[in-house]
């Protein structure tokens, strides 16, 4: 793999060219992360007047509180449901679009729209639609005999945030799936069809395996999305409630750190969260990727 | 404690739906994912502004930075007051800056302090009192500031119920009261009349509330009896004070950091059990956690006949109650509890002075505080907003102006908060990490309403979880 190596005459030049990127990474990623690690070993009052080193106490305490374990569980349920819903829905949409000839472009444009909506705005829209007092959907559901109240019902709240978060991600997944589908040679599917394979068979034996690089990439992106970028959705709809039913890890970091001013615990939580995402990504690349056909 | 802001979007929404949600505005304005970035940006642009201003403005004027959490109409009124002060003298110029909601303002000030960029004055809500008080090197106690700057200052001129919340155990005032309110009962007179009740009689006891509600629902005058904002503040903290029940040990935490919560007593358990029961049979409708954003619309839309919330909700209630007339009453109490009704406790915010500024600044701060607590300014602010007049002189001034006669019900809050001399159970509360404990109160209440636990179980768990946070605070600040 050494074929494309470029030789620089000036030894300093490559470093100079790399410098801006490195500086950005250092200032905006490495430095704050290091700060979080440092802070997680300290106990400090809000104003930073009294600081003491407490070793692993912040971490020990985390794993001894039922609220944190609950948050881990909530995050698991939320991430898996959101990623699954976002992936399956966008794949279905992409597949139906793939069969269109003339109107495909219009549908693509329409389906990509939600991605341009800021997460906070999306959250507020969902908040309006689902609001138990003034929302449209609870009104419709009430007519159907279902009493929707995500302010009190834990599963209602979870459904709300999963739908809102998945909706936001569908456009993105959809675009990639459409591109992926277009790169599958039509001749293969035609050959299978001539051999007598039905649409379902063709999908599972040809389309899905050939789509696996896209699916794998989207899986990684979606999991990272649900872990971090869903903050605004949660904040605008349920604020982690009711009774911590939608308190995902990243929202708890914010609540404990920025609202509760418990910096040590908040830092420990963000370190754990960072660890989880790093581990997940490694697992995905090392093990899941092996099963991907490129 | 109340309408931290009523932004323009809110007004648009009011036109559309006939009501206005704090929740919406919260979601739209207050929260930003990039809190830190936002903060940095604001601080940056702010210091750039200050830098530019220092060239333009007359060098003789000392600028006093005041970070506050009053948005919308309250913010406009605040700026009007500041403009009045700036016009009244030429030595100092107070610069008010809106920093978002209460929690955001406090966080911003703390972050700024850590970076050495703190404002002179910051407005902090009452639940942040414990945190501010414990930060001895960061705050400049008001009593000390006034003495150091030789500014005439009489703590006795303030309403005891207000000042008691913000004084240390030696009776020294640590922060400057600015906007204090207390929860009262609002009711829909038209619905009362329709149900065959006397529209001029507010319910006195919880028994009345239940009986009135039953009648209102039977006759179909309204769908529900009552709703409430702030479960934590109104239905737990004030409930305890109003019935002279302790909220925590060591005089509700005034006595030291070793305090423990005790809100799982029989009176509180009985009340929460009742609320759960009433929620099931429709007498009570839950308005959501925190301020209870969904409660006000229920009252405005005449869905619920009674509504308990801050006296500073008055302006909002009057603006939204277009199709019916509003009656006012004190909070209900249980007749069989000895010593009830005692007096209610306050909420709202005070002004804290931060350390680390030049002496010249503090001279200006002291001068400004004198102006702020003058009867004219106070009476004007109180009558505009529904917040309590913080000095006796401001109350007297309102009386002599005939304000309370022209606006019946506007003095209920003052009467309620001064009903009896405050006891150790009813002068307020002071716990560390209380912002988080407030959230726990909401969570346990939600668990109660969803039938996961009974009232005693919810309160026991609340006390246990709250005490852990108080211990943590003690460890970090002790």
From TrEMBL, chain A:
Among PROSITE patterns, the record links this protein to: ABC_TM1
Among the GO biological process terms of this entry, one is: transmembrane transport
Please, which domain of life does this record's source organism belong to?
Bacteria
Q: Name one GO cellular component term.
A: plasma membrane
Chief location bin: membrane
Query: What parts of the sequence cross the membrane?
Result: 12-34, 72-95, 107-129, 157-181, 202-225, 267-288
Protein localization:
Cell inner membrane; Cell membrane
Q: How does it assemble?
A: The complex is composed of two ATP-binding proteins (UgpC), two transmembrane proteins (UgpA and UgpE) and a solute-binding protein (UgpB).
> What function does this protein fulfil?
Part of the ABC transporter complex UgpBAEC involved in sn-glycerol-3-phosphate (G3P) import. Probably responsible for the translocation of the substrate across the membrane.
User: What's the protein here called?
Assistant: sn-glycerol-3-phosphate transport system permease protein UgpA
Query: Which organism was this protein described from?
Result: Seohaeicola zhoushanensis
């Amino acid at each position: 793999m050494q074929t494309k190596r470029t030789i620089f005459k000036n030894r300093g030049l490559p470093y100079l060219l790399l410098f801006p990127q490195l500086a950005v990474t250092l200032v905006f990623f490495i430095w704050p992360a290091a700060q979080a690690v440092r802070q997680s070993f300290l106990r400090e009052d809000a104003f930073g007047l009294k600081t003491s080193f407490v070793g692993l106490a912040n971490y020990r305490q985390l794993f001894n509180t039922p609220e944190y374990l609950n948050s881990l569980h909530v995050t698991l349920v939320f991430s898996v449901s959101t990623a699954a819903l976002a992936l399956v829905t966008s794949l279905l949409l992409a597949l139906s679009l793939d069969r269109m000839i003339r109107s495909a472009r219009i549908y693509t444009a329409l389906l990509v729209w939600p991605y341009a909506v800021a997460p906070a705005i999306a959250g507020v829209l969902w908040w309006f639609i689902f609001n138990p007092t003034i929302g449209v959907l609870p009104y419709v559901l009430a007519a159907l005999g279902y009493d929707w109240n995500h302010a009190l019902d834990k599963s209602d709240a979870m459904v709300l945030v999963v739908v809102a978060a998945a909706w936001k991600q569908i456009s993105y997944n959809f675009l990639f799936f459409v591109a992926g589908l277009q790169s599958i040679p039509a001749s293969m599917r035609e050959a299978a069809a001539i051999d007598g394979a039905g649409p379902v068979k063709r999908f599972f034996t040809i389309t899905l395996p050939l789509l696996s690089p896209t699916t794998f990439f989207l899986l990684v992106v979606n999991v990272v999305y649900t872990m971090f970028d869903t903050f605004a959705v949660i904040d605008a709809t349920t604020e982690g409630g009711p009774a911590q039913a939608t308190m995902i890890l990243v929202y708890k970091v914010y609540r404990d750190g920025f609202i509760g001013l418990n910096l040590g615990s908040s830092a420990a939580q963000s370190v754990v969260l960072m660890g989880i995402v790093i581990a997940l990504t490694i697992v995905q690349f090392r093990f899941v990727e092996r099963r991907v056909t490129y | 404690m109340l309408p931290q802001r009523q932004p323009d979007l809110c007004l648009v929404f009011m036109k559309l739906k006939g009501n206005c949600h704090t929740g919406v505005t919260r979601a739209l304005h207050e929260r930003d994912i990039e809190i830190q970035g936002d903060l940095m940006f604001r601080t940056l642009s702010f210091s750039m502004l200050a830098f530019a201003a220092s060239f333009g403005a007359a060098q003789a004027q000392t600028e006093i930075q005041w970070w506050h959490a009053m948005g919308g109409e309250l913010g406009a009124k605040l700026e009007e007051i500041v403009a009045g002060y700036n016009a009244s003298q030429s030595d100092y110029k107070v610069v008010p800056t809106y920093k978002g909601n209460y929690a955001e303002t406090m966080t911003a000030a703390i972050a700024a302090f850590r970076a050495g960029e703190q404002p002179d004055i910051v407005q902090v809500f009452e639940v942040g009192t414990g945190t501010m008080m414990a930060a001895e090197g960061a705050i400049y106690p008001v009593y000390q500031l006034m003495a150091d700057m030789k500014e005439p200052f009489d703590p006795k001129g303030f309403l005891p119920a207000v000042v008691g919340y913000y004084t240390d155990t030696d009776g020294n005032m640590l922060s400057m009261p600015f906007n204090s309110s207390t929860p009262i009962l609002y009711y829909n007179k038209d619905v009362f009349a329709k149900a065959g009740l006397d529209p001029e009689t507010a319910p006195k006891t919880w028994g009345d509330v239940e009986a009135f509600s039953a009648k209102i629902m039977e006759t179909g005058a309204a769908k529900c009896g009552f709703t409430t904002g702030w479960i934590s503040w109104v239905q737990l903290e004030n409930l305890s004070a109003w019935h002279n029940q302790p909220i925590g040990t060591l005089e509700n935490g005034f006595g030291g950091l070793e305090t423990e919560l005790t809100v799982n007593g029989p009176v509180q358990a009985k009340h929460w059990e009742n609320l759960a029961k009433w929620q099931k049979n429709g007498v009570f409708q839950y308005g959501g956690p925190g301020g209870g954003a969904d409660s006000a619309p229920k009252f405005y839309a005449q869905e619920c006949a009674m509504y308990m919330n801050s006296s500073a909700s008055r302006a909002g209630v009057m603006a939204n109650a277009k199709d019916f007339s509003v009656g006012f009453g004190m909070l209900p109490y249980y007749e069989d509890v000895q010593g009830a009704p005692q007096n209610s406790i306050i909420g709202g915010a005070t002004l804290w002075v931060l350390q680390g500024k030049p002496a010249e600044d503090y001279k200006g701060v002291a001068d400004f505080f004198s102006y702020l607590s003058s009867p004219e300014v106070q009476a004007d602010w109180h009558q505009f907003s529904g917040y309590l007049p913080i000095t006796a002189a401001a109350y007297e001034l309102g009386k002599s102006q005939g304000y309370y006669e022209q606006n019946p019900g506007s003095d209920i809050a003052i009467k309620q908060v001064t009903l009896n001399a405050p006891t150790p159970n009813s002068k307020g509360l002071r716990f560390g990490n209380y912002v988080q404990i407030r959230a726990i109160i909401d969570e346990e209440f939600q668990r109660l309403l969803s039938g996961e636990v009974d009232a005693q179980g919810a309160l026991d768990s609340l006390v246990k979880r709250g005490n852990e946070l108080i211990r943590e605070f003690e460890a970090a600040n002790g």
